[in-house]
Amino acid sequence: xxxxxxxxxxxxxxxxxxxxxxxxxxxxxxxxxxxxxxxxxxxxxxxxxxxxxxxxxxxxxxxxxxxxxxxxxxxxxxxxxxxxxxxxxxxxxxxxxxxxxxxxxxxxxxxxxxxxxxxxxxxxxxxxxxxxxxxxxxxxxxxxxxxxxxxxxxxxxxxxxxxxxxxxxxxxxxxxxxxxxxxxxxxxxxxxxxxxxxxxxxxxxxxxxxxxxxxxxxxxxxxxxxxxxxxxxxxxxxxxxxxxxxxxxxxxxxxxxxxxxxxxxxxxxxxxxxxxxxxxxxxxxxxxxxxxxxxxxxxxxxxxxxxxxxxxxxxxxxxxxxxxxxxxxxxxxxxxxxxxxxxxxxxxxxxxxxxxxxxxxxxxxxxxxxxxxxxxxxxxxxx
Length: 383
Fold this sequence. Notes:
Layout: E1 2-6, H1 13-16, H2 19-27, H3 40-45, E2 80-82, E3 99-107, E4 110-118, E5 127-133, H4 140-147, H5 149-156, E6 159-163, E7 166-167, E8 174-175, H6 188-202, E9 205-215, H7 217-228, E10 235-239, E11 256-261, H8 284-289, H9 294-304, E12 312-316, E13 320-325, E14 334-339, H10 352-359, H11 370-376, E15 379-381
Parallel strand pairs: 2-15, 5-6, 5-9, 9-10, 10-11, 11-14
Antiparallel strand pairs: 1-3, 3-4, 4-6, 7-8, 12-13, 13-14
Helix pairs in contact: 2-10
């Protein structure tokens, strides 16, 4: 694994969704610039080298989003423990520099820029760590701005990591693999596993408290990690995209949330096969991807966890209905948030209003960041 550091259901899906994040990039004027199967060979042949320079949270040249996150109070419940597939020995905790740290990690057959934010409260203890995966055509800094996760990480005292993907074959837009045959050279699942190992070994990440979240393509990739890396992540939350592909078989019941707007014109909520990204395309395979019904995809994860079939619904504010599944294996919680009139957006986004004309309405009744973290911090893998 080589690392350089600077402190301060379908293979074509990556191409289909590129427009979403290109639009975000053109619209966001923040300092950040805007919004396969596990391969033992790939995982063990990755290389890492490092050249490290750092900035503090107050002097970093890449400032985290400054808009305050939504005021939903994080839960204070002690983390519940759920069983991992394996137990590993945690190395000693290294010294870290607070603030934004930009590194490059070579793993899974590609070089990935990775943005690591360390809170100023860091005092040598191992910290919970959130992996936040961007949408297609976007990058880590844009996802940091879209979600405002770094602001919350500073307030709550956890690490948040924003990796940047690489283009799929035949495209120029950054993406995350949804299936392992998408690229014969790169392996994003191997990269995700290598990233977790690297963060534990070098960035004081607590291996029992690694969480995954993401937007659109990043939400789909988070769903893939629930399917294929359930022993590595303690809990997960997908935004504007979840999928339960054929053959998905989580090794354990993973606490899981999903958020999706009913008026999403990019990834349709009801699976009507219509997406602005299709244009005039009539390729049946492309249309099939957008025929996934988001609540039904999530319900398949609940079925994997042996939850009761019918979720209980609760109104949250004026825009949101929360569907909670009960009686799940190991008592894990699973909930789907339906945002009435919501677009292809991140609920509670600090830049949601600025993007409304392009991506649709972003509710402030819930926050995929604040509520996501409140959910995450209640869960940990058994060490």
